[in-house]
């Protein structure tokens, strides 16, 4: 604990005593109360927990350099051993700490080095997982190069340093993510991501024609999952939306391929890598780790959503998912997600939600429905 206190003191002291007073301070306190009953059994009740996440950030920016440091404490109410003597703060960490150098060598080339959140595209493959009480950060470097045609990130993240764990080897995540200027008002992206020996290639598009919007993404995986097993997964998402009276009604499908057990030397189950899966496959999080949480069967998610319905100062969003498998004729089940958002003040927001999962044979044959209720308060400063 002493080392963490010394780290915080050095960071804050260095910023406060900086000669150039171009510092910006910000932060967030987020509390979320959850009631969860996900085991499809009528003999168990709700499991209740209170989550608290506190973030404090300091940034410095000039024409040539940007520096950002974000400290974070993540905890669950009542998990410390004493209200008086336990100050361990096991989940106190430097969530982000990086510097960014601009216009290197007089070119449109920037470099970001350190620890930071990485968000690419719609986060189906690399995301920050903001819902999680800790969230995801990478250690590494990103070079960004900009031309009239494209804005490209070249990244290299170190997930595992050799020797950190017993008999561990280096594990790097590297690749390129390009924003292409092809059509005004429409987003077009292409990417290549290599995690260890596996390669993921694909593209993303998003745009609108009047009140009708579209979103499409696809990716394939090749290379190797291990020394003797090849990768061969497929992922795609297709969504269409229609704006009416300030609301958006949308429908679409997200597909994750499963593995064919007859091809022993190849794994066709698509791995969603470092995605923010909470955003896509139901708020009850039955499908966070893909392909593990589908048993390698793959996933087909047909969904209908209504966002932006306003009622008495509240915003209500509704989503309905129908989850099927790629390699089975049976269903995982259906899920209903209802979210209510209320702005309390300029820097305070309440978010409440209720979700119900109706299991199919692949989850729990003749099982009870799963339920999830939460109330979250977000205070920014």
Describe the structure.
This protein has 381 residues and is mainly beta. It has a single domain (2-301), classed as Porin. Helices cover 5% and strands 55% of the residues. It contains two helices and 20 strands. It has helices spanning 2-16, 361-364, and strands at residues 23-37, 47-61, 65-76, 92-101, 109-116, 138-146, 150-160, 171-180, 187-195, 198-209, 212-223, 230-231, 234-244, 247-256, 266-267, 299-311, 314-324, 331-345, 348-359, 370-380. The chain has an 18-stranded antiparallel barrel. Strands 12-15 form a two-stranded parallel sheet. A hairpin with a 2-residue loop joins strand 9 and strand 10 (198-209).
Coarse shape: globular
Q: Which percent band covers the strand fraction?
A: over 45%
Question: In this structure, how is the largest beta sheet organized?
Answer: 18 strands, antiparallel, barrel
Question: What number of structural domains do the residues give?
Answer: 1
Mean pLDDT: 93
CATH topology: Porin
CATH architecture: Beta Barrel
The number of helical runs is 2
Derived structural class: mainly beta
Gap between N and C termini: 26 Å
Share of helical residues: under 10%
String of helices and strands: HEEEEEEEEEEEEEEEEEEEHE
Which radius of gyration do the C-alpha atoms yield?
A: 23 Å
């Amino acid at each position: 604990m002493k080392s963490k206190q010394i780290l915080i003191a050095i960071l804050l002291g260095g910023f406060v005593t900086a000669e150039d007073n171009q510092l910006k301070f910000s932060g967030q306190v987020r509390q979320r109360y959850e009631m969860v009953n996900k085991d499809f059994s009528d003999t168990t009740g709700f499991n209740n927990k209170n989550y608290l996440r506190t973030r404090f950030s300091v940034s410095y920016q000039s024409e040539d350099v940007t520096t950002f440091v974000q400290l974070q404490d993540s905890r669950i109410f009542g998990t410390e051993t004493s209200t008086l003597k336990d100050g361990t703060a096991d989940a106190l960490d430097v969530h982000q700490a990086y510097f960014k150098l601009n216009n290197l060598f007089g070119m449109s080339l920037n470099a970001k080095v350190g620890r930071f959140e990485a968000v690419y595209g719609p986060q189906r493959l690399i995301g920050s997982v903001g819902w999680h009480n800790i969230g995801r950060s990478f250690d590494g470097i990103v070079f960004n190069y900009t031309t009239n045609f494209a804005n490209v990130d070249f990244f290299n993240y170190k997930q595992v340093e050799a020797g950190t764990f017993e008999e561990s080897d280096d594990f790097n995540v590297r690749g390129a993510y390009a924003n292409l200027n092809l059509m005004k008002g429409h987003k077009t992206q292409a990417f290549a991501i290599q995690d260890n020996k596996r390669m993921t290639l694909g593209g993303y598009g998003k745009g609108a024609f009047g009140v009708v919007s579209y979103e499409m993404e696809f990716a394939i995986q090749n290379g190797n999952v291990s020394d003797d097993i090849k990768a061969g997964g497929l992922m795609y998402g297709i969504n269409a939306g229609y704006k009416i009276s300030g609301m958006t009604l949308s429908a679409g499908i997200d597909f994750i391929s499963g593995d064919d057990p007859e091809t022993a030397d190849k794994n066709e189950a698509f791995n969603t890598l470092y995605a923010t899966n909470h955003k896509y496959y139901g708020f009850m999080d039955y499908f966070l780790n893909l392909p593990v949480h589908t048993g390698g069967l793959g996933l087909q998610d047909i969904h209908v959503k209504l966002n932006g319905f306003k009622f008495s100062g509240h915003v209500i969003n509704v989503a309905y998912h129908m989850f099927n498998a790629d390699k089975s004729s049976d269903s995982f089940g259906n899920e209903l997600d209802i979210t209510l958002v209320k702005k309390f003040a300029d820097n305070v927001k309440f978010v409440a939600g209720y979700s119900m999962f109706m299991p199919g044979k692949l989850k729990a044959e003749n099982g009870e429905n799963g339920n999830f209720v939460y109330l979250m308060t977000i205070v920014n400063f």
